[in-house]
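Dear colleague,

Thank you for sharing your sequence with our group. We've completed the structure prediction you requested, and as agreed, I am returning the results in plain text so they can be pasted directly into your records. Please verify that the sequence below matches your submission; if there's any discrepancy, let me know and we will rerun it promptly.
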Amino acid sequence: MTMRFQRYGKTYQLQIENARDLEHVLALDEALWVATSAPVSAFRCDPKLAELINTDGGGRINTHELRSAIRWMLGVLSDHTLPKRPDTPLALEAIRGDTPEGKRLRASAAEVIACGETADSTSISIAAVRSYLGHLREQPLNGDGIAVPVAATGEARRLIEDVLDCTGSTEDASGDPGIDEPQLDAFMAAVKGLLEWREAGSGINADSLVPFGAETPAIYHHYADIAGPVNAFFHACRVLNFDAKTGSHFESAAISAVDATSDADLDAWLRTRPLARVNAEGRLPLDSAEVNPFYVTAVEALRTEVLPRILDVCPDRLDESDWAAVGEALKPYGDYVHSKQGANVEKLPPERLEAYRDGTLADEVRRLIEEDRRISEVRAGVLALERLLLYRGNLLRLANNFVSFSELYDVSDRALFEMGSAVIDGRWFNLAFKVDDLAAHQKIAKDSNIFTLYLEIDGLASKPPFTVAVPAMAGSKGNLQVGKRGVFFDTDGREHNARVIQIIANPISVREALGAPFVRLWAFMLGKIESMSTASEKALQQQTDSMLAAPSATPAGQPVPPATQAGSANMLMGLSVAAAAIGSAFAFITKTLASLDKVDILMGVLGAALVVMLPVSLIAILKLRRQDLSALLEGCGWAINARMRPTREQRRQFTRSPRFPADAEGTPNRRLLYALLVVAGGLLLILVLRR
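Please find the predicted structure tokens below.
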């Protein structure tokens, strides 16, 4: 069967109506696809469907992923009849029984049916599969390879709990904490290492390991507590002995920025200073008066608890050779401490560690994990069955929203990437695309030549608000402006509050474009009249004020000064002259128009209007013809091949002004308006013919 193409809008697209057409998608050149890539979030579909198709997890659906999904579905079905409803059950006979994949899917369907998830033993539905998976997730062994405490009993359960306590947890499919086999192995290695470390310590010669008996751990603790700063001090002394200039660096103290009232800030600054004053002799003073205050306690413990037990005489100043002797004496115990293993399980009682040593309980837990793996195979088969049912019920529609855009051009349906409809300024805007990045979308959408509204839509049920791009395709701008409010109905019919937050201004229709020059001219004339009126009003006000102010300055009973009388006379004369001029101008205009032929007047007005309207209409028509909906989708992250020029039907569908009910009273009579327009046009034609 050959491929069939159909013209949608102003592009030719593959007609996709059945499974055979989906086979043609596999062979269709990508350049003939309407879209070659789209964000997963753009589609209103089952989230699991988008996850399954997006095999690389990149958040986008590409041509090879859609092809792979179609190829797999057609390969496991023997009956390629695709349902109109996505939840239509699938007959088991429609699954191929002559391939390993088909046999596995049939077995998984039989497993679901055997568990009583469906009453029909000859077909399987997506609802039954998901019910089975839901019950499976609630079981202790649910096929995810994670052992949870409730899956075991007795000592094996306590082992799982101890592993959770010592090594952390992995979330089970049900959401409960559990452990996997690598965690169990790490725990057992820690138990073995800790026990062997303890045994190794008990077998070492006590004289070399603990030369100071039971006090050795405390002595080593005091030594280790100050060892780092002491080593740094002697190292700084060697540097100073090499280059005396470095002494100024050791002595400098950048304390100006330290808050002297904060103990924490002072301690932080002291930690940056040497243990004591660095000297070329390389001797550490042990007197607390000469030691960095931050280390006084540790140095005192070194002087009283460590040095007297190792050195014959405790010096007032410690040199590097004596310090090396101290480290050598405590090295065996230090090496033992540093070789410690299994610190994360040290908090468990010794007897419990011994109970875990032979691995018997660990093997019991491993058997649970192995049993869970067996269930995992069953679960994987049921998940594959879910994949088949989702593909069978949705791939045909998805292809008509990706390879072709037939649903977008179908005024009776909604495309998968449409968000809903907005009611603003007395109109329905029936096309909306979800926008994730407003600034990025505007950069691309400005080249669409479409008047575009950006609406902020309030979320429902504590969900965050989102933004949609809405094209205005018919009528005029009207009262559309930033801040304008309206309502938005999503594709499920739920109502949201909406507010215009941005606008990309472009001509909406030829009618609006033709009227734009006259609207601007009328606005210009109103502005001029208003400015002239304001100026005249000010001048008149000034003259009136000067006239009224002069008599007020004249005492009662005194005659009005001649200057004031002259000013009043001049003002009255000016008003008379102005009135006469206006009357003369009006009379001249009336006489001139009366002397002209009425046809000449009409033709002159018509000619002037044509001079203005023809270029404006031509530019508007050209710009409207270049309108491209694909730019709005590309701004949302789509990769579009075809130019999506809106048709006349689409314009009326995407932006619609509702009509009043036919039997309503008191509504505008559009028929009378149309009749008057026809009569006016006829009279104009008669006058032209008379010329």
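Summary note from our side: Residues 182 and 397 are 43 Å apart (CA to CA).

Kind regards,
the structure core
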